[in-house]
Amino acid sequence: MKILNVEQIRQLDQATITYEPIAPIQLMERASQAFVDWFMSRYDAFTPVKVFCGLGNNGGDGLAIARLLLQANYIVEVFVVRYAPRESDDFAHNHRRLKLLINPHYVENPGDMPTLRQRDVVIDAILGSGISRPAEGLVKMVIERINRAPAQVISVDIASGLQANQPNQSDDVTIWPDHTVTFDLPKLALLLPGNARSVGEWHMVDIGLNQRFIDQAPTPYYYTTEAEARLLLRRRERFSNKGSFGHALLLVGSYGKIGAGVLAAKACLRSGVGLLTVQTPGCGYVVMQTAVPEAMCRPDVDDRLLTGPSDVDGPSLADYAAIGVGPGIGKAPETARFLREVLTNFSKPVVVDADALNLLSANKDLIGLLPENSILTPHPKEFERLTQRWQNDYDKLELLREFAQRQQVVVVLKGAHTAVALPNGEVHFNSTGNPGMSTGGTGDVLTGLLTALLAQGYDPVEAAVLGVFAHGMAGDKAAQVRGQIGLTASDVVESLHWAW
Ligand SMILES: NC(=O)C1=CN([C@@H]2O[C@H](COP(=O)(O)OP(=O)(O)OC[C@H]3O[C@@H](n4cnc5c(N)ncnc54)[C@H](OP(=O)(O)O)[C@@H]3O)[C@@H](O)[C@H]2O)[C@@H](O)CC1
Ligand SMILES: [K+]
């Protein structure tokens, strides 16, 4: 699904109005009804609802929402924040209609603010995607008062004060909602970690905007939906054998970190690989053979580190279908030498994670050896070591796109809404996963999983988008059983499920 910027959303609005055709006021009605349907599925009619409206179209939505809730017998009070003499036409229209039902309150100075209690639910329709400057004066005061109150807050379309696709200044005030209910398409701001407090949990409601316009609109930003991920998933042919799904090699572990290798190996096997060989330091041999009997194991001649040679024969490096390197390997110079050898002798895409990324950062010339379309899976700190510090999330996104394009690699920047940057400059944000997955080992699981997809012949771009989605989905499934707090990386492996 595409993520469009504010200007494109405005044009999309216009395209819908022109080509459907539909009157602007009816489009507002449709958006408000979609919000109300979402609201009524979660809150009953005994909920005291307080709707705060600005004077633009977001405020117009708020007035229409208030009317629709009143008609559904909800207890609703409306507060119009009169910060300017102007109001939009659709605001004025809905203002007139609402006044046939109730008299709104007008907030013109701090004394007009009501007391907000814990059981109140505030609907924030003060400012929407049309903001052109930071909230100040009366609007700022209202936002701060709402944020300080114990009431639940739900933002219409986007939290008031939050910019939809550009950075806010650190001292800008925005609503801190519990939920954001956004219309039709996700906005970039909703996906960025720095905005967590200004977004809350977000939800998308369909208001039927013009699909032809969306299809043609250029954008580097996408959001991976379940339907899209499903299209990438391949079925297994009936007449197939283990040779059809590739032989993968995982280079993992060091003394004290063999578990990372075990997790990667298990995830690789649970993700459809035909054959798996795991190379670990000598000390990992018995562990691996015991914990993962399905995998073959090549013990390194070094007992504690990965250095390359093994006294167990196996195919030469170049003959593996895919290689994944990094989980638990440490940063020893011997391991760096081995990594150099791997990158020099293997021409197919590799999956590079964890300490292998740190070795790339410490030996930047290794970056140039990465086979084209390799998949790098840094968390933000690892990505910063690979590149540089950034000022804000937008800056980080630009660095990410630039790195993926320049090096012609896929970069999976891990976090809430993991961002998958492609060699063509696109960024695909993931829609699955939960905070329970911020626990040791889940990254190792992703490495094994992605290596399995590459070994099966998936295109690296598709492997990354699909793999990140499936990994998050497994985390979500595990959280349903265990709850987020008790979730472990092993639970994620056991919850991997490739039929949806
Ligand atoms: N597109 C869609 O799909 C649909 C969109 N819909 C809805 O429309 C919303 C966008 O509406 P919008 O463009 O009227 O913007 P919105 O944010 O309500 O008001 C901005 C107004 O406030 C002003 N202003 C700006 N910054 C300010 C500040 N800091 N402090 C104070 N004032 C400030 C600015 O005027 P200015 O002073 O700049 O002339 C402008 O008049 C969108 O979020 C969604 O809810 C649905 O109804 C239908 C489908
Ligand atoms: K809002």
UniProtKB/TrEMBL annotation:
K(+) binds at residues 58, 124, 160. It catalyses: (6R)-NADHX = (6S)-NADHX; (6S)-NADHX + ADP = AMP + phosphate + NADH + H(+); (6R)-NADPHX = (6S)-NADPHX; (6S)-NADPHX + ADP = AMP + phosphate + NADPH + H(+). Binds 1 potassium ion per subunit. (6S)-NADPHX binds at residues 57-61, 128-134, 157, 260, 328, 379, 444. PROSITE patterns: YJEF_C_2 (PS01050), YJEF_C_3 (PS51383), YJEF_N (PS51385). Its EC number is 4.2.1.136, 5.1.99.6. The keyword ATP-binding applies. Keywords: ATP-binding, Isomerase, Lyase, Metal-binding, Multifunctional enzyme, NAD, NADP, Nucleotide-binding, Potassium. AMP binds at residues 414-418, 443. It comes from the Bacteria. The keyword Oxidoreductase does not apply. Residues 225-500 form the YjeF C-terminal domain. It holds the Pfam family Carb_kinase. Its cofactor is Mg(2+); K(+). Residues 9-215 form the YjeF N-terminal domain. Catalyzes the epimerization of the S- and R-forms of NAD(P)HX, a damaged form of NAD(P)H that is a result of enzymatic or heat-dependent hydration. This is a prerequisite for the S-specific NAD(P)H-hydrate dehydratase to allow the repair of both epimers of NAD(P)HX. Catalyzes the dehydration of the S-form of NAD(P)HX at the expense of ADP, which is converted to AMP. Together with NAD(P)HX epimerase, which catalyzes the epimerization of the S- and R-forms, the enzyme allows the repair of both epimers of NAD(P)HX, a damaged form of NAD(P)H that is a result of enzymatic or heat-dependent hydration. Belongs to the NnrD/CARKD family. This is Bifunctional NAD(P)H-hydrate repair enzyme. The gene is nnrD.
